[in-house]
């Protein structure tokens, strides 16, 4: 009934209800989501480089700042 009223599937209602019972709200659980690959310092350096050279393609800038995942894959 609730799902029909809001136009969502029963599984969405079930997951939302279970999360509410677990957390007392609808907050995300800790540990969800993808882990960061770049640090805030890396992010600032990438943005600075893009502003310095606005016509350089993103893939060229990415090559200048290899992240840890790329380094591990090269081994």
Evaluate the radius of gyration.
21 Å
| Largest β sheet strand count, sense and barrel closure | none
SSE pattern, N- to C-terminal: HHHHH
Assembly classification: single chain
Euclidean distance between termini CA atoms: 54 Å
Number of domains: 2
Give the mean pLDDT.
82
Helix percent reads: 55-70%
How many helices? The count is 5
The low-confidence parts are none
Total number of strands: 0
Strand content: under 5%
Structure classification: mainly alpha
Description of the structure:
The chain is mainly α. It contains 5 helices and no strands. The longest helix has 14 residues, at 10-23. The radius of gyration is 21 Å and the shape is elongated.
Write the layout of secondary structure elements.
Layout: H1 2-6, H2 10-23, H3 40-52, H4 58-64, H5 68-74
Question: Characteristics of this structure?
Answer:
75 residues, mainly alpha, 2 domains, 0% strand, elongated, Paired domain-containing protein, Homeodomain-like_sf
Task: Write a brief structural summary.
This protein has helices spanning 2-6, 10-23, 40-52, 58-64, 68-74.
């Amino acid at each position: 009934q609730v799902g029909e009223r809001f136009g969502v599937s029963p599984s969405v209602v079930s997951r939302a209800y279970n999360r509410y019972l677990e957390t007392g709200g609808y907050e995300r659980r800790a540990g969800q989501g993808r882990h960061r690959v770049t640090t805030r310092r890396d992010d600032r350096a990438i943005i600075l480089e893009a502003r310095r050279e606005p016509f350089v393609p993103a893939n060229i800038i990415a090559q200048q700042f290899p992240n840890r995942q790329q380094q591990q894959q090269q081994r």
